[in-house]
Design a protein that fits this description.
single chain, 325 residues, mainly alpha, DNA polymerase, domain 1, hpI Integrase, Chain A, two-stranded antiparallel sheet, 56% helix
Length: 325
């Protein structure tokens, strides 16, 4: 079964491996061996494993476990329609199409097949409007403070306000370790972001208090979080030992939806905390250049064009009134 590649998976994924077509597992394994030696980030390898196992499970349950190399264009289209019915947005489906296409290209290069069923399917329309962004208001933030305190889920509370206060990307938030936090200076050092870049995050006194409460509660309840601020409850097994890992972006997405539902924004995403952080800083008179540095944007135009709420005419009027013009 390729234990050397698939041993580092959850129990649920192992159950999938044990029931699907062994020949398909072998093909997937050869691909994963290739990406394991191609210097991919660990989370990238994990996402590729998840994509392939989901596809293998679909083939097992809906296509009588037929070979990956025998999948037709129509069957692949039905799989993509199935993803849409599961709630995936066009952008997410397009990303999965890219991943599967790369897999089939690998099989073609190996001489296993000459056919890529993804090649003949047009990608779904990508939504490139600003409609997907949500900027939390001060009133909504106050509502969240009250409801999250009542909710008694300290981890969820810390996640929401840590994300809002730091304006950090989801990849940065997910992998914070306690040892990186300087509570006296209210800073988090050597935080890994996208493209393997590192940054420093700053958080408020309110968030400092929440973090300390979270750490104390875990110590009192003898909870082993593996050193992660946001750890995954899923058990991973590596070399026959349980390994505790940080949460992934999918989990943080679910948390964001849960938080958003409390303040009337059920579609809230992890990145919306970043949008909101930026917008609140600017509304309170913050300098856009400094705000851009806080968000770790390489170009100030990114901050200006994508992170500012351009239809907030009341804020524009108040800003203009400061100068008596």
């Amino acid at each position: 079964m390729g234990e050397s590649i698939f041993k580092d998976v959850t129990l649920k994924r192992k159950e999938i491996l044990n029931k699907v077509n062994p020949e398909n597992v072998e093909l997937a394994q050869s691909y994963l061996k290739y990406i394991n030696i191609s210097s991919f980030e660990k989370h990238t390898v994990s996402s590729k494993i998840q994509l392939l196992l989901h596809f293998l499970n679909y083939i097992h349950e809906n296509l009588d476990d037929k070979l990956l190399t025998d999948i037709t264009v129509a069957e692949m289209e039905n799989y993509l329609l199935y993803l849409g019915k599961c709630g995936l947005q066009p952008n997410s489906i397009s990303t999965k199409m890219n991943g599967l296409s790369v897999f089939y290209k690998f099989l073609i290069n190996k001489g296993v097949t000459m056919f890529n069923p993804i090649y003949y399917i047009p990608k779904p329309h990508k939504l490139k409007t600003d409609d997907h962004r949500h900027f939390l208001t001060e009133k909504q933030v106050e509502i969240l403070k009250e409801k999250l305190e009542q909710n008694s889920d300290r981890t969820l509370q810390v996640y929401a306000f840590f994300s809002l206060s730091t304006g950090a990307r989801v990849t940065a938030v997910s992998s914070i370790r306690w040892e990186q936090i300087d509570f006296e200076k209210r800073m988090v050092y050597k935080v890994k972001e996208k493209f393997s870049n590192y940054c420093t995050l700053c958080f408020s006194e309110y968030v400092k208090d929440l973090l300390l409460k979270l750490r104390t509660e875990r110590e009192q309840n003898r909870i082993n979080d593996g050193g992660w601020v946001f750890y995954s409850p899923v058990k991973f097994y590596k070399d026959n030992c349980v390994e505790i890992r940080h949460v992934n972006s999918n989990t943080l997405g679910k948390w964001a939806h849960k938080v958003g539902a409390m303040c009337g924004v059920p579609e809230l995403t992890p990145h919306d905390f970043r949008y909101s952080c930026c917008n609140m800083l600017l509304q309170k008179g913050g300098d856009i250049a400094i705000t851009s540095l806080i968000l770790h944007h390489k170009n100030i135009s990114t901050t200006l064009h994508h992170y500012c709420k351009k239809d907030d005419v009341e804020f524009m009027r108040q800003y203009k009134d400061q100068f008596g013009i």
